[in-house]
Write a structure and sequence with these properties.
The protein is an all-alpha fold. It has a single domain, classed as Glycosyltransferase (Alpha/alpha barrel). Helix content is 45%, strand content 2%. The chain contains 16 helices and 4 strands. Strands 1-2 form a two-stranded antiparallel sheet. A two-stranded antiparallel sheet has the order 3-4. Strand 1 and strand 2 form a beta hairpin. Helix 4 runs antiparallel to helix 5, helix 8 runs antiparallel to helix 9 and helix 11 packs parallel to helix 16. The termini are far apart.
C-alpha cells in the first residue's frame, strides 16, 4: 500500500498545484459567483425591509387596537429637542414635515416683536378659501337633518352626513391638514412666524409629558419631566379625561391625527385609545369627573372622526356614543351642569360654562356627520335666552338672574354664533363691543376667557378682530415659557396666577393658550364682510354697538 502514498517531492509540489487550481477557478468562475452573491444579499435585504422585518420591534402597547389599519411602512420621525425660537421658519411650514425638524438656528430676538407687520390691514378679513360661510354654515337647527343611527348598548354608528372631508380641508375645519390652505389662512387671518413657533413648541411639550398609558394628568404630568420638573399641577380631582382631551385637541387643531404619518401619530393614537378605553357603555367619558370632562373628551373624539373621515372605526362609534350621552344629560332648562340630568322630580339645573363645552361638542359632531337631535339644539337656545343680559341680549351670565361676566359673555356669544345668530344682529354687535372693552391683559390672565373670546372675534373679521388679535397674540407669545423642561408651556401661577390656573394647572392653561393661537386655521371664520345678511335692522344694530361701547 506504500506505493500509493505520494513521494516527498510530490508533497512539496502540492501547495503550488492547489494554488494553481484555485487561481484558474477564480479567473474562470470567481467574478460570476461573487456578483451573484452580492446581488442576492441586496435583494434579500430589500425584501426584508419591505416586509417590515428590518429594525427594532415596536414597543409594547405603542398603538391601540383601533389603529391596526394604519400604514406602518413609513417610520414615524422622533422629536428629541425643540426650542421655542426654532422651526418652523415660515407660517406655512407648521405641518407634518416641519414638525419633525428640530435643528434650525435659534432665533435670538424676542418672538413677541413679530407682530403687526405680518398682518394685512383689517386683520386679514378676506373670504374663506372654500367660499362658504365657514364653520357650520351658521349651525342652524334646520341644517341638522336626521341620519340613520344603529343603536346598541350605549354606542351608535352614524350614516353619511355633511362631514368636512379627509384631512379637515372641507367645510368647517379650516386649513387643518392642508399645507397650502393653511399658509393662506395663517397669514390671511392674523398668524405670524412667532405664533406658529409657539404652537409647535407647545405640541412638543405635550408630547414629552404624556403618561405611559397614553393619557395625561392634571396633577401628575410632572412624573414625565426631564431635569427640573415643571411646576403648576392642577388641584382638580378625577380630571384625567379632561386632561387627556385638552392635550389632544392642540394636535388635532394642527391637523395631526392618529392617521397622520407625522412625529405625533403614536402620541395621538395612544391618547385616543386611552379615552375610548375609559368610556362607559352608555357613552359616558367623565371617568369619575364631571360634564366638563365629558364635553372636552366628546369634542376630541368628534374632531378625530371628522379629520380622518373614518366612519368605520371605534373612534367614530365612541364619538356618537359621547354625543348620545350629552343628549340624555341635558336638563329641562335646556342647559347642562356638573352632573348628568337627575331624576324627573329634581329641579332643573344648568350653567353657561358647562353649556359651552357641550354645544361645541354638538357642533363638532355635526361637522363629523354624526346625529344631533334638533330638540337638543332647541334646548340650548332656551338656556342661552334665559341667561342673556344687556339691552340687546349680547351679554351672558353664569346662571339666570346673576350678573354678566366677560367669561360667560364670551361663551354665550360663541354658542349664539354657532346656533344661527347673524353677524350684524344687535346682540352680536353688543357682545363684540363688550369683549373689546375687556381686551387680553397680562396683569389679569384668563386663558379660559381668551380662548372663547378669540373664537368669537375671529368669526367677525375686520378692524375689531385686528385689535383683539394683535393684543392676544402679543400677550400669549410673550408669556410662553422658553427654556427648561417647561419650554413650550404656559405657567398657570407665575408671574401672575391665571384665573383658572389653580384647578386646571399647566395642562389646562397650556392647552387653551395653544388652541387660541391655532384659531387662524382651526375653524373657518363664521362670517364674511362681503357676505352680510342685511335683513337685520341696520339702525338698531348701529345703536346697539354704540350703546355697548359707551358702557363696556
Amino acid at each position: 500500500m506504500l506505493k500509493f502514498l505520494p513521494s516527498p517531492a510530490q508533497l512539496l509540489a502540492l501547495p503550488a498545484h492547489v494554488a494553481a487550481v484555485v487561481k484558474a477557478w477564480c479567473l474562470t468562475y470567481g467574478i460570476w459567483w461573487g456578483s451573484s452573491m452580492v446581488g442576492h444579499a441586496v435583494l434579500l435585504t430589500v425584501v426584508l425591509m419591505l416586509l417590515g422585518r428590518v429594525g427594532s420591534p415596536p414597543k409594547e402597547g405603542e398603538a391601540p387596537a383601533f389603529e391596526a389599519r394604519l400604514d406602518t411602512e413609513i417610520p414615524v420621525p422622533q422629536l428629541d429637542h425643540f426650542d421655542v425660537g426654532q422651526t418652523p421658519l415660515e407660517p406655512s411650514e407648521l405641518n407634518t414635515e416641519t414638525l419633525s425638524l428640530f435643528d434650525a438656528p435659534k432665533m435670538e430676538a424676542d418672538p413677541a416683536t413679530e407682530t403687526s407687520d405680518a398682518i394685512p390691514s383689517g386683520g386679514g378679513s378676506g373670504a374663506s378659501p372654500s367660499g362658504g360661510i365657514g364653520g357650520l354654515d351658521q349651525f342652524a337647527v334646520k341644517a341638522l337633518g336626521p341620519g340613520p343611527l344603529v343603536r346598541g348598548t350605549g354606542m351608535a354608528a352614524s350614516g353619511t352626513g355633511r362631514g368636512p372631508g379627509s384631512g379637515g380641508a372641507g367645510n368647517g375645519f379650516g386649513a387643518r391638514g392642508d399645507k397650502n390652505a393653511r399658509a393662506a389662512m395663517v397669514g390671511g387671518y392674523g398668524g405670524t412666524k412667532a405664533s406658529e413657533r409657539a404652537v409647535a413648541a407647545a405640541l412638543h411639550w405635550f408630547d414629552r409629558h404624556q403618561n405611559a398609558d397614553g393619557g395625561w394628568s392634571v396633577n401628575g404630568f410632572m412624573q414625565n419631566c426631564n431635569g427640573d420638573p415643571c411646576t403648576g399641577p392642577g388641584t382638580a380631582d378625577r380630571a384625567d379625561s379632561a386632561a387627556t382631551a385638552m392635550a389632544l385637541l392642540p394636535f388635532l387643531a394642527a391637523g395631526q391625527t392618529h392617521f397622520t404619518k407625522g412625529p405625533y401619530r403614536d402620541t395621538i393614537a395612544k391618547g385616543i385609545g386611552w379615552l375610548i378605553s375609559h368610556q362607559k357603555q352608555d357613552g359616558d367619558l367623565r371617568d369619575g369627573g364631571n360634564m366638563y370632562s365629558h364635553g372636552l373628551a366628546a369634542i376630541t373624539l368628534c374632531e378625530a372622526t371628522a379629520l380622518t373621515n373614518d366612519k368605520d372605526s371605534r373612534v367614530h362609534l365612541a364619538a356618537q356614543g359621547a354625543i348620545d350621552f350629552i343628549v340624555r344629560a341635558q336638563y329641562e332648562s335646556g342647559g347642562w351642569h356638573y352632573t348628568a340630568r337627575p331624576e324627573p322630580d329634581e329641579p332643573p339645573f344648568g350653567d353657561t360654562s358647562v353649556v359651552g363645552w357641550q354645544v361645541m361638542a354638538l357642533k363638532s359632531a355635526q361637522m363629523a356627520g354624526l346625529e344631533v337631535p334638533e330638540s337638543t339644539i332647541a334646548g340650548s337656545h332656551k338656556w342661552l335666552k334665559a341667561t342673556a343680559l344687556g339691552k340687546y341680549g349680547g351679554q351672558f351670565s353664569y346662571q339666570p338672574n346673576t350678573g354678566a361676566t366677560a367669561s360667560m359673555t364670551s361663551v354665550g356669544l360663541l354658542c349664539t354664533q354657532y346656533l344661527g345668530a347673524k353677524r350684524d344682529s344687535p346682540s352680536i354687535q353688543e357682545g363684540m363691543a363688550y369683549l373689546l372693552g375687556h381686551l387680553p391683559d397680562p396683569q389679569q390672565p384668563n386663558c379660559y376667557y381668551w380662548y372663547y373670546a378669540t373664537q368669537v372675534m375671529h368669526n367677525l373679521p375686520g378692524p375689531e378682530w385686528d385689535t383683539w388679535n394683535r393684543q392676544m397674540r402679543r400677550v400669549l407669545i410673550d408669556s410662553q415659557i422658553k427654556k427648561g423642561c417647561a419650554e413650550g408651556s404656559w405657567d398657570p401661577l407665575r408671574p401672575i396666577a391665571d384665573q383658572w390656573g389653580e384647578p386646571g394647572g399647566r395642562i389646562m392653561v397650556t392647552s387653551l393658550c395653544c388652541l387660541t393661537l391655532e384659531v387662524y386655521y382651526r375653524y373657518l371664520p363664521l362670517y364674511k364682510l362681503d357676505n352680510l345678511d342685511t335683513t337685520e335692522n341696520t339702525e338698531q344694530t348701529t345703536t346697539a354697538a354704540a350703546d355697548a361701547k359707551a358702557k363696556p
